[in-house]
Structure formats: structure tokens, C-alpha cells
Amino acid sequence: MSERRMNMAKRALQELKRGDVVNLGIGIPTLVADLITPEDGIVMHTENGMLGVGPAPKDGGGAMDYPVNAGKIPVTALPGASYFDSADSFAMIRGRHVDVAVMGGLEVDEKANLANWAVPGQPLLGVGGAMDLASGAKTLIITMTHTDKSGASKIVPSCTLPVTALQAVDLIITDLAVFRFINGELTLIELMPGATLEEVRAKTTARFAEKLG
């Protein structure tokens, strides 16, 4: 497990509060589920129809033994968990009953627009529930590497990939930095472990304000 990926998951967990209903996307966000304990009082939602998602099973059991999340990964059920159909699940999302969505990203731009479903050079499988979650969650947190495999910035002046949601992102957590949109302005608020301000400036093509604590 990459230490940088886990650092992003740990930072995302800091944004979650007791009583929050939280939906985690595929990729780095799924790591957050393994950090949450029943004592945290956080209620995990998955769009395929489960509320009260627990961490991955430790006994190696598969989909025939446990429920699965939207990424088809086996999960456990915490006490009080409930199951429902996809229509009810999406009614919860569209009705803004999900407090926080933590999702992966391919690009986020200066206007808080998100692109996260069409990977260049890969077959298009469809946006899935990402569009509903990005628009319907009360708070949207994006966890992603700061640059793509070629080294290009993923925090950009304007999205070039198909947009998932407009002006929806509240917080960006990368392996280098944490950005928050404050009064609509992209703002650097933290550096991640091992990162420097000079590195963040060099690897970010979007304009941003700096309010480091």
C-alpha cells in the first residue's frame, strides 16, 4: 500500500464528522472505509443500495459471503446496516441526504468543476453514479494524485476532459497538497507530508491563493 495514497485517505477522514452520511468512490476513497471504526459514528452509503457499510472482511471472504459496494468489492455490515434498491439509493443522493462524497478525480479546475469518468485512451464505460453524487452531496471531496502519469498537472485552469459536475468541488486532497475553494477561489491550505511549496507551485497549472497555516 502506497504511503502517499494512505496519507490522502487519512486526510479525507479528518473532514468527516460523527453522524455524517458518507459515500466513497472507487480508488483512493475506498481506503477511507478501512480507517473508519464504529466508534467514529460515520454512516457509510453505497449507491448500489446499502447504508452502514463496514470495512473489508479480514477473513478473505468474497462476494458470495458478504455484501459488496458499488465497486463490487466485498464489505462488512456494521450493526444497524440496511439494504435497499438502487432507485431508493439514488433518491437519497439526489435528495441531498448524503452529507459528504469522497471521489477520485482526473481534473479539477479553477472554477471547482470536476472531470473524473472519461480516461483518455480508454473505452468509455459511462459516468455511472458519479454525476449524481458530485452534484447531490452536500460536500464534495476529491482525492487524486497531483499529476498524471506523464507528469501533467491535474489541477488545471479549465477542464479539458468531459465534465462530471459544474462548480461542485469543495476540497481537493492530493499527494502533495490540500486545496479548499474559499469564496469560490481555489486556495492552498496545507502541504502533505514530504511536499514543498515550491513543488506544489511548479506542478499546478491552475491559479490559486495561498493560506497555509
TrEMBL record:
Question: What is stated as this protein's family in its record?
Answer: Belongs to the 3-oxoacid CoA-transferase subunit B family.
Q: Which domain of life is it from?
A: Bacteria
For this protein, the record's InterPro entries field holds:
3-oxoacid_CoA-transf_B, CoA_trans_fam_I, NagB/RpiA_transferase-like
- Print the keywords alphabetically: Transferase
> Among its keywords, does the record have Transmembrane helix?
no
Gene3D superfamilies reported for this sequence? Glutaconate Coenzyme A-transferase
Would you tell me the protein name for this molecule?
Answer: Succinyl-CoA--3-ketoacid-CoA transferase
The record ties this protein, via PANTHER family, to:
KETOACID-COENZYME A TRANSFERASE, SUCCINYL-COA:3-KETOACID COENZYME A TRANSFERASE SUBUNIT B-RELATED
* Natural source organism: Pontibacter flavimaris
Q: Which Pfam families match?
A: CoA_trans
Q: SMART domains this protein is in?
A: CoA_trans
Q: Which GO terms describe its molecular function?
A: CoA-transferase activity
